[in-house]
Task: structure prediction
Amino acid sequence: MPKTAVISDIHANLHALYAVMADFQCEQCTDVVCLGDVVGYNAYPQECVNEIRAIGCPVVKGNHDEEVCREDQTRMNPIARQAMEWTRSRLDEDSLTWLRRLPLQRIERSKFVMVHSSLDQPMAWNYILNANDAAGHFNRQFLPVCFHGHTHQPRVFAWDGRHSIEMAEYWQQLLHDGEVVVPLQPGLKYFINVGSVGQPRDGDPRACYGIYDSDAATVTLRRVEYDVAAAQQAVLAVGLPEYLAERLGAGQ
Ligand code: ZN
Result:
């Protein structure tokens, strides 16, 4: 019974990544896929790249993975730029080459699609925040399931052949219960944001990820406790902006 752990937006948060890895092993996931933004914001970029490469899972590129490979980061705002320059200084050449070569999208075992932002313009890094934003994406999604990240907010969008729909009840239940099972109905296409492992932004500081069970035709979104204080300490200890530590505690 293949269960695939779908993780995204780790953002150099090793404490959160370890907690999620332990959780998906407990949940008996046999496969793992990663939707990008392995680095950026937090204190362990090289270590997180090493862990993901050691898993050997399929990975697509996030905007931070792309940005860190640029030598010139003057286009970014000062806080983002400071964090990005520090991140780049911590990555070895081999890791930068690996990040640079990540694909923007990928079809996994003919079953589902992986992308960091959306399939209509993956290079534009659009933020898919509502059903209207998702409509353009659905024109480019030909398999029943596509997973994405980027906004750091778990969401379930569906396409019934004519309309793009946001299934808000699922993320509300996730916020309330820390877990929600989404049954995949035949005839609908799903575009599912699995939230962020390393920097959640939906008000719940716990790490978030998804489990796709292709036999049961379900996607489970889960929250995982991790040592937020230790991750915050690490951010401050390496001299990254205080704001980046604070937002981990707030889940924003
Ligand atoms: Zn991100």
